[in-house]
Design a protein that fits this description.
This protein has eight helices and seven strands, in the order αααβααββαββααββ. The protein has a domain of 154 residues: Histidine kinase-like ATPase, C-terminal domain (Heat Shock Protein 90). The strands form two sheets. The chain has a five-stranded mixed beta sheet with strand order 2-4-5-7-6. A two-stranded antiparallel sheet has the order 1-3. Helix 2 runs antiparallel to helix 3, helix 4 packs parallel to helix 6 and helix 6 runs antiparallel to helix 8. By secondary structure, it is α+β, with helices and mostly antiparallel strands. It is 56% helix and 13% strand.
Length: 325
């Protein structure tokens, strides 16, 4: 970038300019004659030409500087555009990679029960040919279990695809009613396994409690958190509680269990699709590896969040924050 180049007037020209300036205000200078002309045309013309030349030179330098500044702006804009385009390409590649991984994982999860059903079908056929009704009934039960697992996985995949759509911003849900409905089926499973399943809602709260979330997404959160707790709790209790943080204007929906807990190195990953801290146990218990990722996505869709606290061997706690309606 250029710097201004100032021309220093010679002392003689500067003295002349000062002398003329003194004459212009009407005051006589040393050696002047009263009544004589106030200006020396030759001197004034010389100085005027010098001033004009300096002004033109300065204008030329200002013009050059302006051009340089515009060039810098264009270069900067082009650099930002190039950087943005490069970042967009990286994001697109990352999304494409994630989609490819997701499709591969989903295909694997679907192939597993299909292969199991095919093998169980062969075993069932052989059992029927041998008139072994007891074995046939056992294989039929396994087939039904695999079909249920496939149906659950298909429904969860459909939920994930639905999350790509923008939610209805006017949707609200009655938390108390949703909690009561969500406890019906898990309560039966808990009793059958000797577990205590309870719900606690702050007594100071009114009868109707509304949150900014669609009933479908709220059901996904409650069903998956309770199902996850049942899967990983062999003895003890599961507690669902609801309280309000009035300062932040949010609901705090917590599901706490006394189950196996989650190791610290697994905790950052439990909300990822198809991630399992213990793959063998999850598959045996029918888990798809999508439940907690659905919980997180459902909460984020409504400007909420989910926080995990867990200690291996001592249980886990999942707290979902949802905006008050």
């Amino acid at each position: 970038m250029k710097l201004f180049k100032w021309r220093i007037l010679p002392e003689a020209e500067l003295a002349k300019l000062q002398d003329i300036s003194g004459r212009q205000d009407g005051s006589p200078t040393a050696g002047s004659i009263v009544g004589s002309p106030r200006f020396d045309s030759a001197e004034l013309g010389s100085i005027a030409r010098n001033v004009t030349q300096q002004r033109l030179a300065l204008q030329a330098e200002l013009h050059d500087l302006q051009l340089e500044l515009e060039a810098l702006r264009r270069d900067s804009t082009a650099a930002r555009a190039e950087s943005a385009a490069s970042e967009a390409k990286r994001k697109e590649a990352r999304i494409e990679h994630m989609q490819t991984d997701f499709i591969a994982a989903a295909s694997h999860e679907l192939k597993t029960p299909l292969a199991g059903i095919e093998a169980l079908g062969d075993a069932l056929q052989m059992a029927l040919e041998d008139d072994n009704l007891e074995a046939a009934n056992t294989f039929a039960g396994h087939i039904k279990a695999e079909v249920r697992r496939m149906r659950a996985l298909t429904e969860e995949l459909l939920d994930l695809s639905r999350f790509d759509e923008n939610p209805d911003s006017d949707s609200v849900s009655n938390l108390r009613a949703a909690i009561e409905n969500a406890l019906i089926m898990p309560q039966k499973a808990a009793i059958a396994r000797g577990l205590v399943l309870s719900a606690h809602i702050d007594d100071s709260l009114p009868r109707t409690l509304f949150a900014k979330i669609s009933p479908t997404d709220l059901s996904i959160i409650l069903d998956n958190l309770l199902d996850n707790a049942l899967h990983y709790t062999k003895e003890g209790s599961i507690d669902l509680s609801l309280r309000q943080d009035s300062d932040k204007k949010i609901w705090l929906l917590e599901v706490r269990d006394t189950g196996v807990g989650i190791a610290s190195h697994d905790q950052p990953h439990v909300f990822e699709r198809f991630y399992r801290a213990d793959r063998s146990r999850s598959r045996d218990q029918g888990g798809t590896g999508l439940g907690l990722s659905l919980v997180k996505k459902a909460a984020l869709r409504w400007n909420g969040s989910v926080v995990l606290q867990s200690e291996l061997g001592k249980g886990s706690s999942f707290t979902v924050e949802l905006p008050v309606a």
